[in-house]
């Protein structure tokens, strides 16, 4: 099997054909897929129906160690999708009904509309995320992604010199709060402590330098609160300019895969009190 990539953006992102994630993949095809990911960082594969949970997990497990277990514990959470490998990114409760507007879980989910990279608040980082579309609203709800390798390449030399060598604290609860959520309880906070990562690293798949930033960053170490806030805002504004951003418009059965070590992404708004959106994500880790 030979994979064909159709670029979707001048800098990154491609649509792949010649691969079906619902079927077993041989070693040669898997190597082609990984090579495409290393080149494009974001790839989409279309299917005429959504992957089953089992198909989704089976392909994801070929890409490395998978995140398994409960998501960060939010009070009142019950599982709708009974697979520890799948993170439920829908606006639906355990009964398949739309969350109430004031539901704590809905408020936290809206924080995903901030630019971020998945699981940077973990001591073992996420590599690939694979998001599978089971139910798509008729309007809105695109996913936007930004190329952090291209952003680093274009960053002015003075800014590169300023940020290289700096580290930042990443916190799940920080991004939930800045996204409009309530203060976490002490029980919630204990389930996901903050971790420290460099602001710049070498992306292992391509050997290119990339910014490693996200709305999960609570502070940049060694700077005052004001300096940290201003520098992070400057980096985020620069890295999410339209020239670095690709917007994926969803179709039922799409699987969108991105490399968290060289991209950021965000959900875009839709009428989440009117339309059901069922998205299910698996995450591969270093």
Amount of helix: 10-25%
Query: Based on DSSP secondary structure assignment, what is the total number of beta strands?
Result: 15
Q: Structural class given helices, strands, pairing? A: alpha+beta
What percent strand?
15-25%
Q: Write down the Rg.
A: 18 Å
Report the end-to-end length measured between terminal Cα atoms: 27 Å
Major sheet attributes: 7 strands, mixed
Silhouette: globular
Lateral strand order in the biggest sheet: 1-2-3-13-5-15-4
**Average pLDDT for all residues:** 93
* Helix-strand sequence: EEHEHEHEEHHEHHEEEEHEEEE
Low-confidence blocks of residues: 71-77
Number of helices: 8
Structural summary, described in words:
It is a single chain. With 286 residues, this protein is α+β, with helices and mostly antiparallel strands. The protein contains eight helices and 15 strands. It has helices spanning 27-40, 53-60, 104-109, 148-154, 157-163, 172-178, 186-190, 225-239; strands spanning 4-7, 14-17, 42-45, 87-88, 126-135, 143-147, 167-170, 195-198, 200-202, 209-211, 217-220, 245-248, 255-259, 263-267, 278-285. The strands form four sheets. Strands 1-2-3-13-5-15-4 form a seven-stranded mixed beta sheet, with helices on one face. The protein is globular, with a radius of gyration of 18 Å. It starts with a strand and ends with a strand.
Condensed summary:
This protein is of the alpha+beta class. The chain has helices at 27-40, 53-60, 104-109, 148-154, 157-163, 172-178, 186-190, 225-239; strands at 4-7, 14-17, 42-45, 87-88, 126-135, 143-147, 167-170, 195-198, 200-202, 209-211, 217-220, 245-248, 255-259, 263-267, 278-285.
